[in-house]
Amino acid sequence: MIKVGVLEAATAIGAELIRILLNHPDVELQWAQSSVVQGALSAYIRGITGETDLSFCRMALGEVDAIINCSPVPVSAEMLAGVARNPANVKIIEMAATELPDTYAYGICELNRKTLVRGCMTARHVSPLAMAVELALFPLAKHLMLNSQISVAATIGVSGTRAISRRGSGRLPECGEIADAMRLVQSSFFGNVDIVEMRSGGADGLMAVISMPCPMPIGEIRPLYEKAYEDHSFTYVSEDIVDTRDVAGTNKCLLHLDKVDDTLHITAVLDPRIKGGAGNAVHMLNLMFGLLERTGLAIKATPE
After folding, report:
1. Would you say the pTM of this structure is higher than 0.85?
2. Alpha-carbon dihedral of residues 58, 63, 65, 68, nearest 10 degrees?
3. Is-contact 146 182, C-beta < 8 A?
4. Tag placement on the chain: N or C end, fewer CB within 10 Å?
Protein backbone atom coordinates (compact mmCIF):
# COMPACT_ATOMS: atom_id res chain seq x y z
CA MET A 1 0.00 0.00 0.00
CA ILE A 2 1.14 3.54 -0.79
CA LYS A 3 1.13 5.64 2.37
CA VAL A 4 -0.03 9.19 1.61
CA GLY A 5 -0.23 12.35 3.68
CA VAL A 6 -2.18 15.49 2.71
CA LEU A 7 -0.99 18.93 3.82
CA GLU A 8 -3.60 21.65 4.44
CA ALA A 9 -6.35 19.15 3.78
CA ALA A 10 -9.16 21.39 5.08
CA THR A 11 -9.67 23.03 1.70
CA ALA A 12 -12.12 22.34 -1.12
CA ILE A 13 -9.45 20.42 -3.05
CA GLY A 14 -8.20 18.71 0.11
CA ALA A 15 -11.70 17.45 0.92
CA GLU A 16 -12.08 15.99 -2.58
CA LEU A 17 -8.63 14.41 -2.29
CA ILE A 18 -9.56 12.70 0.96
CA ARG A 19 -12.81 11.39 -0.52
CA ILE A 20 -10.91 9.84 -3.44
CA LEU A 21 -7.94 8.53 -1.45
CA LEU A 22 -10.13 6.79 1.14
CA ASN A 23 -11.59 4.68 -1.67
CA HIS A 24 -8.34 4.14 -3.58
CA PRO A 25 -7.47 0.41 -3.50
CA ASP A 26 -3.68 0.98 -3.38
CA VAL A 27 -3.52 3.94 -0.98
CA GLU A 28 -3.53 4.20 2.80
CA LEU A 29 -4.24 7.73 4.00
CA GLN A 30 -1.80 8.18 6.87
CA TRP A 31 -2.68 11.69 7.96
CA ALA A 32 -4.50 14.85 6.91
CA GLN A 33 -2.87 17.98 8.29
CA SER A 34 -4.57 21.33 8.78
CA SER A 35 -3.41 24.53 10.48
CA VAL A 36 -6.98 25.85 10.85
CA VAL A 37 -9.35 22.89 11.41
CA GLN A 38 -9.26 20.23 14.11
CA GLY A 39 -11.47 17.24 14.85
CA ALA A 40 -12.67 14.23 12.90
CA LEU A 41 -12.38 14.34 9.11
CA SER A 42 -15.98 13.11 8.84
CA ALA A 43 -17.23 16.14 10.79
CA TYR A 44 -15.82 18.46 8.13
CA ILE A 45 -16.01 16.42 4.93
CA ARG A 46 -19.44 15.21 3.86
CA GLY A 47 -19.96 11.66 2.67
CA ILE A 48 -17.11 9.88 4.48
CA THR A 49 -18.82 8.97 7.77
CA GLY A 50 -17.90 5.38 8.61
CA GLU A 51 -14.99 5.28 6.15
CA THR A 52 -12.24 6.59 8.43
CA ASP A 53 -11.47 7.29 12.08
CA LEU A 54 -8.79 9.85 11.19
CA SER A 55 -8.83 13.37 12.58
CA PHE A 56 -7.07 16.46 11.28
CA CYS A 57 -3.64 16.83 12.83
CA ARG A 58 -1.85 20.09 13.50
CA MET A 59 1.51 18.62 12.46
CA ALA A 60 2.22 15.83 9.98
CA LEU A 61 2.37 12.50 11.81
CA GLY A 62 3.76 9.20 10.57
CA GLU A 63 5.97 8.09 7.72
CA VAL A 64 4.63 8.35 4.17
CA ASP A 65 5.62 7.42 0.63
CA ALA A 66 3.99 10.53 -0.89
CA ILE A 67 2.80 13.98 0.17
CA ILE A 68 0.09 15.91 -1.63
CA ASN A 69 0.43 19.53 -0.59
CA CYS A 70 -2.59 21.85 -0.83
CA SER A 71 -0.72 24.76 0.76
CA PRO A 72 0.84 27.55 -1.34
CA VAL A 73 4.04 27.02 0.68
CA PRO A 74 6.14 24.21 -0.87
CA VAL A 75 7.08 21.13 1.13
CA SER A 76 10.31 21.86 3.00
CA ALA A 77 13.32 19.68 3.71
CA GLU A 78 12.46 19.91 7.43
CA MET A 79 8.98 18.59 6.76
CA LEU A 80 10.35 15.64 4.76
CA ALA A 81 12.85 14.81 7.48
CA GLY A 82 9.96 14.40 9.92
CA VAL A 83 7.89 11.97 7.83
CA ALA A 84 10.45 9.62 6.27
CA ARG A 85 13.60 7.70 7.16
CA ASN A 86 14.88 8.54 3.69
CA PRO A 87 13.33 11.88 2.59
CA ALA A 88 14.75 11.45 -0.92
CA ASN A 89 12.31 8.57 -1.47
CA VAL A 90 9.16 10.61 -0.74
CA LYS A 91 7.25 11.70 -3.84
CA ILE A 92 5.74 15.19 -3.70
CA ILE A 93 2.78 16.65 -5.56
CA GLU A 94 2.38 20.40 -5.13
CA MET A 95 -1.18 21.60 -5.72
CA ALA A 96 -0.92 25.35 -5.00
CA ALA A 97 2.73 26.44 -4.81
CA THR A 98 3.82 28.51 -7.81
CA GLU A 99 7.50 29.31 -7.25
CA LEU A 100 8.93 25.85 -7.92
CA PRO A 101 12.10 24.63 -9.67
CA ASP A 102 11.91 23.35 -13.24
CA THR A 103 12.68 19.89 -11.86
CA TYR A 104 9.00 19.58 -10.88
CA ALA A 105 7.11 17.71 -13.61
CA TYR A 106 4.39 19.73 -15.32
CA GLY A 107 1.18 18.15 -14.12
CA ILE A 108 -0.95 17.56 -17.21
CA CYS A 109 -0.82 13.78 -17.47
CA GLU A 110 -1.94 13.62 -21.10
CA LEU A 111 0.96 15.85 -22.16
CA ASN A 112 3.61 14.64 -19.71
CA ARG A 113 2.87 10.99 -18.98
CA LYS A 114 6.34 9.67 -19.88
CA THR A 115 8.03 12.05 -17.46
CA LEU A 116 5.64 11.14 -14.64
CA VAL A 117 6.13 7.38 -15.02
CA ARG A 118 9.91 7.40 -15.43
CA GLY A 119 11.11 7.88 -11.89
CA CYS A 120 9.48 11.25 -11.26
CA MET A 121 9.77 12.36 -7.62
CA THR A 122 8.21 15.84 -7.72
CA ALA A 123 5.29 17.19 -9.75
CA ARG A 124 3.25 20.36 -9.76
CA HIS A 125 -0.43 20.79 -10.43
CA VAL A 126 -1.68 23.02 -13.26
CA SER A 127 -4.61 25.43 -12.95
CA PRO A 128 -7.93 24.07 -14.28
CA LEU A 129 -8.09 26.83 -16.90
CA ALA A 130 -4.60 26.10 -18.26
CA MET A 131 -5.41 22.40 -18.29
CA ALA A 132 -8.63 22.80 -20.29
CA VAL A 133 -7.02 25.05 -22.91
CA GLU A 134 -3.87 22.97 -23.26
CA LEU A 135 -5.84 19.75 -23.70
CA ALA A 136 -7.84 21.54 -26.42
CA LEU A 137 -4.71 22.74 -28.22
CA PHE A 138 -2.34 19.79 -27.81
CA PRO A 139 -3.45 17.76 -30.88
CA LEU A 140 -3.07 20.85 -33.08
CA ALA A 141 0.39 21.64 -31.70
CA LYS A 142 1.39 18.02 -32.21
CA HIS A 143 0.67 18.47 -35.94
CA LEU A 144 2.27 21.95 -36.18
CA MET A 145 -1.10 23.62 -36.73
CA LEU A 146 -0.81 26.51 -34.25
CA ASN A 147 0.11 29.39 -36.52
CA SER A 148 -1.98 32.34 -35.38
CA GLN A 149 -3.47 34.23 -32.47
CA ILE A 150 -5.52 32.05 -30.10
CA SER A 151 -8.59 33.48 -28.37
CA VAL A 152 -10.18 31.87 -25.32
CA ALA A 153 -13.50 32.62 -23.64
CA ALA A 154 -13.83 30.76 -20.33
CA THR A 155 -16.75 30.46 -17.94
CA ILE A 156 -16.16 29.17 -14.41
CA GLY A 157 -18.98 28.16 -12.09
CA VAL A 158 -19.40 29.07 -8.45
CA SER A 159 -17.59 26.14 -6.82
CA GLY A 160 -14.98 26.13 -9.55
CA THR A 161 -13.79 29.53 -8.41
CA ARG A 162 -12.67 27.94 -5.15
CA ALA A 163 -10.32 25.71 -7.14
CA ILE A 164 -8.77 28.68 -8.93
CA SER A 165 -6.84 31.46 -7.24
CA ARG A 166 -7.44 34.64 -9.19
CA ARG A 167 -4.89 37.42 -9.08
CA GLY A 168 -6.96 40.50 -9.81
CA SER A 169 -7.46 42.26 -13.14
CA GLY A 170 -5.12 42.30 -16.12
CA ARG A 171 -3.61 39.61 -18.31
CA LEU A 172 -4.01 36.19 -16.71
CA PRO A 173 -0.82 34.23 -15.96
CA GLU A 174 -2.33 31.27 -17.81
CA CYS A 175 -1.88 33.16 -21.11
CA GLY A 176 1.89 32.90 -20.97
CA GLU A 177 1.85 29.46 -19.36
CA ILE A 178 -0.30 27.98 -22.13
CA ALA A 179 1.79 29.57 -24.88
CA ASP A 180 5.01 28.25 -23.30
CA ALA A 181 3.55 24.75 -22.92
CA MET A 182 2.47 24.67 -26.56
CA ARG A 183 5.92 25.82 -27.71
CA LEU A 184 7.39 22.74 -26.03
CA VAL A 185 5.21 20.70 -28.41
CA GLN A 186 5.42 23.00 -31.46
CA SER A 187 8.59 25.08 -31.33
CA SER A 188 7.42 27.17 -34.32
CA PHE A 189 4.42 28.59 -32.44
CA PHE A 190 4.98 32.27 -31.68
CA GLY A 191 1.40 33.48 -31.39
CA ASN A 192 -0.27 34.90 -28.29
CA VAL A 193 -3.01 33.38 -26.17
CA ASP A 194 -5.68 35.84 -25.05
CA ILE A 195 -8.19 34.79 -22.40
CA VAL A 196 -11.46 36.41 -21.36
CA GLU A 197 -12.63 34.84 -18.11
CA MET A 198 -16.21 35.08 -16.88
CA ARG A 199 -17.78 33.91 -13.64
CA SER A 200 -21.00 31.95 -13.76
CA GLY A 201 -23.44 32.38 -10.91
CA GLY A 202 -25.20 29.17 -11.90
CA ALA A 203 -23.88 25.73 -12.75
CA ASP A 204 -20.54 24.57 -11.42
CA GLY A 205 -17.71 23.55 -13.71
CA LEU A 206 -15.39 25.11 -16.23
CA MET A 207 -16.04 25.65 -19.92
CA ALA A 208 -13.45 27.12 -22.28
CA VAL A 209 -14.11 27.93 -25.94
CA ILE A 210 -10.88 28.24 -27.92
CA SER A 211 -11.03 29.94 -31.32
CA MET A 212 -8.47 30.37 -34.14
CA PRO A 213 -8.29 30.48 -37.94
CA CYS A 214 -7.96 27.02 -39.49
CA PRO A 215 -8.60 26.20 -43.17
CA MET A 216 -8.62 22.40 -42.69
CA PRO A 217 -12.09 20.74 -42.89
CA ILE A 218 -13.56 19.61 -39.60
CA GLY A 219 -13.71 16.04 -40.89
CA GLU A 220 -9.91 16.01 -41.12
CA ILE A 221 -9.33 17.71 -37.77
CA ARG A 222 -11.44 15.42 -35.60
CA PRO A 223 -9.36 12.25 -36.34
CA LEU A 224 -6.25 14.11 -35.13
CA TYR A 225 -7.91 14.61 -31.75
CA GLU A 226 -9.21 11.06 -31.55
CA LYS A 227 -5.74 9.71 -32.33
CA ALA A 228 -4.04 12.01 -29.81
CA TYR A 229 -6.24 10.83 -26.93
CA GLU A 230 -7.04 7.25 -27.91
CA ASP A 231 -4.65 5.76 -25.33
CA HIS A 232 -5.50 8.21 -22.55
CA SER A 233 -8.08 7.47 -19.91
CA PHE A 234 -9.85 10.73 -19.16
CA THR A 235 -9.92 13.06 -22.19
CA TYR A 236 -12.51 12.35 -24.88
CA VAL A 237 -13.69 13.92 -28.13
CA SER A 238 -17.46 14.28 -28.39
CA GLU A 239 -19.43 14.80 -31.59
CA ASP A 240 -22.25 16.24 -29.50
CA ILE A 241 -22.21 19.70 -27.93
CA VAL A 242 -20.71 19.40 -24.45
CA ASP A 243 -21.91 20.85 -21.16
CA THR A 244 -20.30 21.19 -17.75
CA ARG A 245 -23.02 18.88 -16.41
CA ASP A 246 -21.53 16.08 -18.53
CA VAL A 247 -18.34 16.09 -16.45
CA ALA A 248 -19.56 17.17 -12.99
CA GLY A 249 -18.02 14.97 -10.31
CA THR A 250 -15.77 13.10 -12.77
CA ASN A 251 -12.11 13.14 -13.76
CA LYS A 252 -13.01 13.71 -17.43
CA CYS A 253 -12.31 16.47 -19.90
CA LEU A 254 -14.63 16.51 -22.91
CA LEU A 255 -13.74 18.27 -26.16
CA HIS A 256 -16.11 19.31 -28.96
CA LEU A 257 -14.98 20.65 -32.33
CA ASP A 258 -16.91 23.01 -34.58
CA LYS A 259 -16.17 25.35 -37.48
CA VAL A 260 -17.76 28.58 -38.63
CA ASP A 261 -16.36 29.53 -42.04
CA ASP A 262 -12.57 29.31 -41.53
CA THR A 263 -12.62 29.65 -37.74
CA LEU A 264 -12.15 26.55 -35.62
CA HIS A 265 -13.89 26.49 -32.23
CA ILE A 266 -12.86 23.91 -29.62
CA THR A 267 -15.02 23.64 -26.52
CA ALA A 268 -13.45 22.02 -23.45
CA VAL A 269 -15.35 21.21 -20.25
CA LEU A 270 -14.08 19.79 -16.97
CA ASP A 271 -14.83 19.80 -13.25
CA PRO A 272 -12.28 22.14 -11.59
CA ARG A 273 -12.52 20.28 -8.28
CA ILE A 274 -11.85 16.84 -9.80
CA LYS A 275 -10.17 16.81 -13.21
CA GLY A 276 -8.84 20.30 -12.51
CA GLY A 277 -7.92 19.46 -8.92
CA ALA A 278 -8.05 16.38 -6.70
CA GLY A 279 -8.60 13.85 -9.48
CA ASN A 280 -5.59 15.12 -11.39
CA ALA A 281 -3.46 14.86 -8.25
CA VAL A 282 -4.43 11.20 -7.88
CA HIS A 283 -3.88 10.67 -11.62
CA MET A 284 -0.31 11.98 -11.16
CA LEU A 285 0.12 9.82 -8.05
CA ASN A 286 -0.93 6.72 -10.00
CA LEU A 287 1.57 7.41 -12.76
CA MET A 288 4.42 8.23 -10.35
CA PHE A 289 3.90 4.89 -8.58
CA GLY A 290 3.42 2.82 -11.73
CA LEU A 291 -0.29 2.13 -11.24
CA LEU A 292 -2.95 1.97 -13.93
CA GLU A 293 -4.18 5.50 -14.66
CA ARG A 294 -7.79 4.83 -13.76
CA THR A 295 -7.07 3.26 -10.35
CA GLY A 296 -9.33 4.90 -7.79
CA LEU A 297 -10.70 7.36 -10.37
CA ALA A 298 -13.68 5.52 -11.83
CA ILE A 299 -15.92 8.26 -10.45
CA LYS A 300 -19.57 8.39 -11.45
CA ALA A 301 -21.00 11.63 -12.73
CA THR A 302 -22.96 13.74 -10.28
CA PRO A 303 -26.69 13.29 -11.05
CA GLU A 304 -28.72 16.40 -11.87
Report:
1. yes
2. 0
3. yes
4. C
